[in-house]
Specification:
The complex is a heterodimer of chains A (about 325) and B (about 290). Chain A is mostly helical and about 325 residues long. Helices cover about 75% and strands about 0% of the residues of chain A. Chain A has helices spanning about 1-10, 15-25, 25-55, 75-80, 80-115, 120-130, 135-145, 150-160, 160-165, 180-205, 210-220, 225-250, 255-260, 270-280, 285-295, 295-315. Chain B is built from 16 helices and 2 strands. In chain B, a hairpin with a 2-residue loop joins strand 1 and strand 2 (about 255). Chain B has helices at about 1-10, 10-45, 50-55, 70-80, 80-110, 120-130, 135-145, 155-160, 160-175, 180-190, 195-205, 205-220, 225-230, 240-245, 255-275, 280-290; strands at about 250, 255.
Amino acid sequence: MAEIARRRQLGLNAMGGRIGHVLDTEWVFGYVLVAPAIVYILLLVAYPFAVALWFTVSNATVAQPIAEFTGLTNLMGVLNDDIFRRALLNTVIFTISSQVLQMFFGTFLAFLLLRRFKGRPFVRALIMLPFTIPIAIGAMAWTWMLNPTYSVINWVGVHSGFFGIFGLTEGPNWLGEEIPAMISIILVNVWRNLPFTAIVLTAGISAVPQEIIEAANLDGANWWVRWNKIMVPIVAPILYIALLFSLVFTSTDMTVVWLMTRGNPVESTHVIASYAFQTGVIAGSLGRGATMSLFLFPVTLVAAFLFLRNIRSRSMD
Amino acid sequence: MAARTQAHHSTAYRLRRLRGSVIFWGVLGLYILFAAFPVYWMFITTFKQVNDLYNLQNNPLVFHLAPTLDQVRYLFERTNFVTWVENTAEVGLAVVVITVLVCVPAAYVLARTRFPGGGTLGIGIFLTYLVPPTLLFLPLSQLVVGLGLVNNKWSLAVVYPTFTIPFCTWLLMGFFKNVPREITEAARVDGCSRLGAMFRIVLPVSVPGIMTIVIFAFTLAMQEYVYALTFVSSSDQKMITLGVVTDLIRGDVFFWGSLMAGALIVSIPVAIVYNMFMDSFVRGITGGALK
């Protein structure tokens, strides 16, 4: 039966049959079908990345993209740029503080969401809102909520008497002063990423078999042992991937800063990405801009490598 | 049985439970307030009359004058909002087509066939997703110049697959892995070619997975901001998210009512879709850790 079907197929179209036969070899089939994806990524990710590397050691500008090799001039220029140094510091501050806060509050939230209660899907949908709406939109909503004149947060702060506790008669100009602006940016980053951390943790924790926890409970393990010896090893891989993603995307994001402060007041709230955009795209200095956007890449690469190696070694056990 | 339960629920026990549940809902309520208030604020701002919105004497949290559709009307009639919706539909569709054509075969072989370097390629594609837009916008802007697509929405259709392809390939691999090997092996024994087995056996049962990547490719394209801001500046070439957050600011004047109306219109469909597909989305991102 199978033989007849095969012969019929070959007989119907000898030429197509031959091509089909070659394509039917497992490795040929694999390479041919994966090729479009690889070609797309080579052309539009790998090649541009190589061009970016070239930009960092050249004096390319938008007006003159064919450039000369200038060695470390860009790197030196960037390192001597006070605004860039501030942007570097800000990137580190924003990334680390957001990660710590979202991990802390996210773990707490995950345990709340794991309980069974009425209206859980609805509550979950509300909690997920910051993550499900586009970040540019969320940043604009916060910009409006922190408006110097019409800030609803300040209105509530003043009218509830909360600001009075600190001796304030009116709220801060959130996005117009340095420290409040930095707090606002961290706040929006946490707002955005908290639900993702919580949902990933919920998924990870739900994957822990109930019997193991019960067995540990019977053995009299306290919550710290339960957490450290049972939860963490099982939850860690998924959590590490989530951390890696939010680390990479928070440290390279320019949307929040660009929409909320555009680096102001007096260029004190730039992050590397927003300053690279200002230098490379708006001012058209491709070499300088690329040097900035690639500045943290080695760090990210090492972090990604360590995270992935850790995950792999854990899943080997 | 009932009596025993009753006795067990002494007053002290009930009080303790009540206290626990008050604390639980109190804390959860704070989280909900933090997460959802900006959306409530978009909603209030959208439907308030201008005189109400900008009156500092009023409690901003509630309506003082009757709700109005003026701001929504302004968005539709006095801005390019409708053009942005059309642009989003066109570019989004192109991104979806490219993504599906590239991802389905790639994910299929990465999930179901063995060839030298296959595993490495899979991880390589996954890592591509970790390359952020702010790393590539400068060289890509030169590429866009080379393609003659400066300030043209179609430049985005070329660029967006750089992040939809890795994400969707990874997501789809999960779906393809779950189709039992036996059914394709049976088809192969019956003389079906590898390609035939893919088209006739595996793809038909993977329609939900393919629909999921269609939706993600479209919404990821719809909400993108950095590339859009870099490559497109004319209002009539903008996609919806960029248009809403840039075109309703004229000089120093923000048209907050209409801006928030646009924000709401963009957010609601995306939020609903992401909620429905949240588990897939998380799997798309974290899949590497679980498989």
